Fold this protein.
Amino acid sequence: MTQNAIEMVNVDKWFGDFQVLKGINLNVQSGERVVICGPSGSGKSTVVRCINRLEAHQKGVIKIGGVVQDGSAAALEAIRSEVGMVFQQFNLFPHLSVMENLVLGPMKARGMSRQQAEERAMEYLERVRIPEQAFKRPSQLSGGQQQRVAIARSLCMEPKVMLFDEPTSALDPEMISEVLDVIVELAEEGMTMVVVTHEMGFARKVADKMVFMDAGEIIETGTAGDFFSAPKSERTQAFLQQILQH
Amino acid sequence: MRVVLFLFGVLLLSSCGSSDTWGWYVVNPMTPSGWVNIRFLINGMGATVLLSVIAASISIVLGLLVALPALSEHRGIRAINRVYVEVIRAIPLLPMLFWVFYGLPIVFKSMGLNIQIDPFWGAIITLALSDSAFTAEIYRAGIQSIAKGQSEAAKTVGLNYLQTMRYVILPQAIRRILPPLANQFIYIVKMSAFASVIGMQELTRRANELVVTEYRPLEIYSLLIVEYLVLVLIISAAVRWLERKMGSDERG
């Protein structure tokens, strides 16, 4: 039996009176690559943030690796150790060097020795192709390099699932591909991932499953092939037309 | 420093013109009696500094403990911070000093405890308590100024609350709050003068005592002001140095 890495059943969430998520049902199997797209404000970032409980949902069930996410400390610990996250704004720690950014989690949360943690950090810095930047401050790096450091920082925790919340939206155009290349490589290695993005070329390349959201609902789910060539819903068609026009 | 000496010089010179207004003999270091008076005044410096440093140290720790509940998601926990800050901040220093020095021992006595409060510790308790409400607000502002993404990123690499504070939030916040904290320390140094009214032998108390015997308030209080000025300027210079070292003077 293949277990679902992520399982969301009828998830509702409100911010105050405003319902951001309406009955979200989403399964992500181990090794599956899911891309979520949709207009801004559609709730796609909130879905990702609910998965690792940066936001708490109010109704429904979210299971990560079979663990029901109920806000308990034990569940939280299980989730955080399985799920890595990359943010739109990178969120590197500006007062620490790249290396310190990478070893902080493994050393403090996992109790790894400094030597072990640094060896692992160098390994992942090489994978994202910036080992030479290890001892610089984040502010000395370009946006693309910072985002690759952020990816390496997540990978250092050796998560089973990676979440990407608009990883290239804050980047200058010429830096987008260096970050996407790294994510594609990860996808090819079989990492389970959920990516929120507007990069449709990238989505076509890596997505096993496409999810289209609008106004807090999942409007359409399908394989990348079906989704792009024959979108069923009118709203999906309109969205794709707008975004693919240029 | 040069400005201070200059101003002091102007005061001295002006005394030459009208000898009945100024009587600098009372603190003239060239005469034995003047020198004794100066030494008597300056000897209060140690107590003022010690009082301020201990009170500020307590306030810095207490302020952080008071600030942390303000960052909670739970309204009830945030209320602890709000009540503490609003109440302590509303009490003027002098009444609080009287209450601690004269009132608190009675409270202790009624509880069957025989705890005497001497002027030194009475002043420290009052200064630290009063200041902690302000320090707490400085911490809160500093911590809240760190973008939410920082604590989120810390969570996603597995750090718990205390680790997030210690390794991610506070190191960044401390650079921003150092200037207002230094400001607050200077405030404590000045407010420590109130300790004179409960008999603490610090700078102001000594000046008062000398005025009573010498009848020269203008000269003695002028010197007192210069003493505080020198003390504060030394603290300012030290803080500037610390800011440079910690990068508080840089942007970002």
